Every structure is written in structure tokens, then in C-alpha cells.
Amino acid sequence: MGEALESPKPDDLKQFSLLVEFDEQDRIDLCELLEPLALKSGKTLFKERDEADVLYLIREGSIRIRSEAAGNLGLLCGGATLGAISLMSIGAREADAVAESDCEFAILTRAGFRRLFEDAPRTACRLAEAVVAELASGLRPNLARVKREFSSDEIVHSG
User: Fold this and answer.
1) pTM of the model
2) DSSP label of 92
């Protein structure tokens, strides 16, 4: 990846499930604020406890996610996104992200997301809705498990 990276084009964004509801104008608006990023195999994208303030759209390659507490959490490949909630929530990264192969990303910083709200509020709102929907879909299986665990008629009082 020694050559200069091309900025993402609107059609490039069609591969991301997070952006599936975006129309052509949404993709154009978002592309104006995305920056290209390359990472060589074996290099660290970010470390656990780093400030989380960037959404990564993985265009090519694969990223290994792991944490000190949980170990290996999985592998994300081209078409996946990483860090979407960091656009709206200030906090630290929960895991390390290390390139398993040479990678190309399109990134949106939190500052870029705020600018999107100024320049293209409809697109920013659609992106925020997509992030919340993705987060909710990840929580639903856990909520179902909690409901099953607490569905008995037993009443537990603390104190």
C-alpha cells in the first residue's frame, strides 16, 4: 500500500450494512467528510483504553479485535464497521484492534460527524439512526436472556 489512497466514492459505501438505508445523496454527503487510511498487516489500529472518537469503515483487509479481559473477540473484514458508537459517546476503546492483513479504511471522526450535522443534517440523522439500530440489534439477544432469567415468579429483595 505504498501508493496514495483514493478517497472513498459514494458507490464504495454500498458495501457497508450500517449504511444500507443511505440513498445516493446521503452517500455523497458522507463521502465529503470521510478520510482514507491504510494500515499494514501486524500494525495496531488502536489500543484498549485509547480515546474512542473515530468510525472505521473497513474497505479492505481484516482486523483482529481482542481485549485483556475477554481475549480474542473476533475478526472484522471488508464491509464491516468499527467504532460507530464513538461518534456519539465519549469514552475509551474497549479492546485492541490489530491488522491481520493490509487494510484500507474510510474514517469519520467525531468532529466530522458534528460537521455532517451542520452541512447535511438529514444524512447525519440517518447515520445516527443506523448506529442506534445496530446497537439495539446487538443488545436484543442479551435482553431476551435477561428476561428468561428473571421471568420466574420469585421476587428478590435486596438489602
Assistant:
1) 0.84
2) B
Strand order in the sheet with 103-109: 35-39, 103-109, 54-60, 81-82
Stated as kind and residue range, the H or E segment containing 43 is none
Sequence-ordered alpha helix ranges (H) in 56-120: 110-119
CA pair distance 103, 71, nearest whole angstrom: 22
Would the pLDDT of 159 be above 80? no
Average pLDDT for 111-120: 96
Q: Which domain holds residue 93?
A: 10-149
Distance of CA 113 to the CA centre of its chain: 13
Query: How open is the CA angle 96-100-104, to the nearest 5 degrees?
Result: 90
In this structure, which amino acid lies at residue 136?
A
Q: How many domains does the chain have?
A: 1
Cell triple for 10: 459514494
Residues ≥6 apart with Cβ < 8 Å to 55: 81, 82, 83, 84, 86, 87, 107, 108, 109, 113
Q: How many CA atoms does the CB half-sphere of 50 hold within 13 Å? A: 14
Tens of pLDDT, residue by residue over 87-104, are 988 999 999 999 999 999
**Cβ count near 33 (within 10 Å):** 20
For residue 80, tell me if it sits in a domain.
Answer: yes
